[in-house]
Design a protein that fits this description.
This protein is an alpha+beta fold. About 40% of the residues lie in helices and about 25% in strands. The protein has a single domain (about 5-90), classed as Gyrase A, domain 2. The chain contains three helices and four strands; from the N terminus they run αββαββα. It has a four-stranded antiparallel sheet. The mean pLDDT is about 95.
Length: about 90
Amino acid sequence: MPAISTQEAQARLGKLKEWHIEGGQLVKVFKFRHFRDSLAFVNKVGELAEEAGHHPDIDIRYSTVRLTLTTHDAGGLTDKDFDLAAKADRQA
């Protein structure tokens, strides 16, 4: 799957809530009330990632979860990143 253009990435970013592009990667920070809520969210995203065969970088800091998406083998952002981002939003 080829990487999408910077212009297309910016256009698709407008359809996602609170995601941004940082260093060529799609990034969002999710905030939860408790640590257990963060873990539950990460487990749900993990299941989605396994189903998609596309795995985000995940950083958990108590009630804060940072997801970072990129398609390494394409050298940039692809449909896979935006699809998983939208699915993650629905889980939050």
